[in-house]
Amino acid sequence: MNITLNQTDSTNAQLKVILEEADYAPKVDQQVKEFSKKAQIKGFRPGKVPAGLVKKMYGKSILVEQINKLLQEEISKYIRDNDVKLLGEPLPEPNQDQIDWDNQKEFEFNYQVGLLPEINLPLDKSVEGYAIEVDQKTIDEAYENLKRQFGKTVNPETSEQGDFISGELKAVEGDFLSKTLIPTSRVVEGQEQFVGVKAGDVIRFDIRKTFGDDNAALAHVTGLSKDEAADLSGEFEFTVEKINRTEPAELNQELFDKLFGKDEVTTEEEFDAKLRETIKENYERESDNLLYRNIIDTLVDNTEAELPTEFFKRWLQVTNEGKLTPEQIEENFDKYLRELKWSMIKNKVVEENELKVTNEEVMDSTMDKMLAQFNMPEVPEELKESMKNYAQQHLQQDNGRNYIQEYEQLLAEKVLAKLKEQMTVVEKTITAEDFRNGSYE
């Protein structure tokens, strides 16, 4: 076997592989023998099929399979041993000579290869980060949201502002008729019509004036799509059937346990402190996410790299056959280039800092996500084993695809944390309200 790599320019190369009969014949003969032991052919007892007959009947397919397997193994070994930094994997040269599998003994295979350059990370660049002050307004809103979220629904006789009113909505002129639920908070004009009403009352209103030009609100009220709601106008009548009101939850031990676990918080003072701590942690996570996006953009924008663009386009089309057209690749190519550069940056940080993710870390992260999904602060002792088994099954699904995704996510988090240490972060202090409103932009 002879493998050679001929660099045609700074970003492209041709990989040539020449196979002689001695390279593949032993593997083919071994596979024929294995197949003859298992083959069931009429006239022969199981395991007694002559190897010559198997070779005559299935030799070509076995030959093709073994040569393809040998090529993959040897090319991967060559790339690894020679530390060739390539984009994706080698692609067979188009329009190669037709192979005569029946008569050829020596085979030549040619591949196009895209080479990736060494890059220097511009770690001297500064990035903007945010220190978020949790103001009292944010705390008050959190209290209101929690009380509403964990409150109970009652059905009073008479409506008040903030109630949800269910009933029948119909157009005065036209065929529209629907059972619906009107949130009084969505009414922008004539709110007094929806306050103080009882079951059986009929409210007449201009639907555009009442709900404004907010097609999302109209869609919510009518059950139509946004496009359909955009065509609505004129007078409507709403016959009240039931008033729905959420009574705020009380700040008691039941609520404390639901939010933070059994007896973790036992007084309103502890609850307030824990709530502030939780809100602060949530904003710190969001602030970190924004900082990480800034880090990625800064490094991608300022990392110089000559890339094999034409090879990259072909690689995208080949590996996504049937999913991406050449037109779609051209349209989104700048985005693909940015993703490629970030992948190169990430790999360099991993290599230089010897970053690793352990199986234990993957399992712990998966368990944490499961607990968050079920809104459980910790795993009850009696459920630990079953939840661990469930997590393992989840990670093994799709031939381990979930495991790879979790592993890659954890690795990316370690890369970004390391870059945060290495780069200069210029921190700006803003309130939580300004952060929510996007005032940092």
Count of folded domains: 3
Low-confidence parts, pLDDT < 50 over ≥5 residues? Answer: none
CATH class of the largest domain: Mainly Alpha
Largest sheet: 5 strands, antiparallel
Q: In percent terms, what proportion of residues is strand?
A: 15-25%
The name CATH uses for the topology of the largest domain is Trigger factor, domain 2
In angstroms, what is the radius of gyration? 33 Å
Mean pLDDT score: 88
If you had to describe this structure to a student in words, what would you say it looks like?
With 441 residues, this protein is α+β, with helices and mostly antiparallel strands. It folds into 3 domains: 2-114, 2-Layer Sandwich (Alpha-Beta Plaits); 152-247, Roll (Chitinase A, domain 3), CATH 3.10.50; 267-436, Trigger factor, domain 2 (Orthogonal Bundle). The protein contains 14 helices and 11 strands. It has helices at 21-38, 51-81, 136-149, 207-211, 215-222, 226-229, 253-260, 268-302, 309-319, 326-331, 333-353, 359-373, 384-422, 432-436; strands at residues 2-7, 12-19, 91-92, 107-114, 126-133, 152-154, 164-171, 177-183, 202-206, 235-247, 424-431. The strands form 3 sheets. Strands 6, 7, 8, 9 and 10 form a 5-stranded antiparallel β-sheet that branches. It has a 4-stranded antiparallel β-sheet with strand order 1-2-4-3. Strand 7 (164-171) and strand 8 (177-183) form a beta hairpin. Helix 1 (21-38) packs across helix 2, helix 8 packs across helix 11 and helix 12 (359-373) packs across helix 13. The two termini are 59 Å apart.
